[in-house]
Write a structure and sequence with these properties.
Helices cover 33% and strands 24% of the residues. It is of the alpha/beta class. A seven-stranded mixed β-sheet has the order 5-4-1-6-10-7-11, sandwiched between helices. A two-stranded antiparallel sheet has the order 2-3. β2 (27-28) and β3 (31-32) form a beta hairpin. α3 crosses α5 (163-176) and α5 (163-176) packs across α6. It is globular, with a radius of gyration of 17 Å. The chain starts with a strand and ends in an 8-residue tail after the last helix.
Length: 229
């Protein structure tokens, strides 16, 4: 059985949500958003530890909330980086196991079955993704290029990787001064190797703006989620 470290990115400070607290602390059905994620993975045997990079001013608060719920797995809160990429890097440096799963604290609607499917994927690197149902153009102030949407993927988390390989890719990116918005693009940039894309879910939203919070409450209350939520 493969063993995993679980990196739960909690470095956001609620800027786009127009809050003075990290958005992962917002309540969803009475619980902080990130607690919903921890509840999903707490009984998955392959996941052996949880690392949570979070803002330094909220380390104690995060631990305090976690301790209220009595999780069985060891959970370590570490100081997050100045960027998402740096937070993943810090998590990788602390990870104890050969494989890692990277997820975001503000994606609470991923299911336990989704995590199991990711773990059971035969490739050592796998992500979730969705087709893009709308037209996408490249451009800034003017249109520069047509893009073929049937060849594009809306990247979702969670992801899984070999820990040492992803760490090496991160170290290369740091040396090259490159920034990526998520790990699949970073990993592919340096390895050009296969990353399996599993079918994602429209309900696996990332809660970053006020409208996302309203959508999340609707999803939860209407129980549209897959069985086992």
């Amino acid at each position: 059985m493969s063993q995993y470290s679980f990196i739960l990115l909690s470095g956001g400070i609620g800027k786009r949500m127009q809050l003075n607290i990290p958005k992962q602390f917002l309540l969803l059905s009475g619980k902080p958003i990130f607690i919903h994620v921890l509840e999903k993975i707490d009984t998955i045997d392959e996941i052996k530890e949880v690392l949570i990079p979070c803002p330094p001013d909220f380390l104690e608060k995060t631990l305090e909330i976690i301790n209220e719920y009595g999780f069985s797995k060891p959970i370590y809160c570490i100081t997050g980086g100045r960027s998402r990429q740096e937070s993943v890097y810090k998590g990788l440096k602390e990870a104890s196991f050969e494989n890692v799963i990277v997820h975001e604290a503000v994606r609470p609607f991923v299911s336990k079955e989704d995590f199991k499917e990711l773990i059971n994927a035969k490739s050592e690197s796998a992500i979730y993704g969705l087709d893009i149902p709308f037209t996408v153009l490249k451009g800034g102030e003017v249109v520069e290029e047509n893009l073929e949407r049937d060849k594009l993927v809306n990247v979702q988390l969670p992801h899984k990787y070999n820990r040492d390989k992803l760490l090496y890719a991160h170290e290369c990116a740091r040396e090259d001064g490159l920034e990526f918005t998520e790990d699949a693009s970073l990993y592919f940039h340096y390895y050009k190797s296969d990353i399996v894309i599993l079918k994602g879910s429209e309900y696996n939203i990332k809660i970053t703006k006020p409208i996302d919070r309203k959508i999340a409450e609707t999803i939860y209350k209407e129980s549209i989620l897959m069985e086992g939520y």
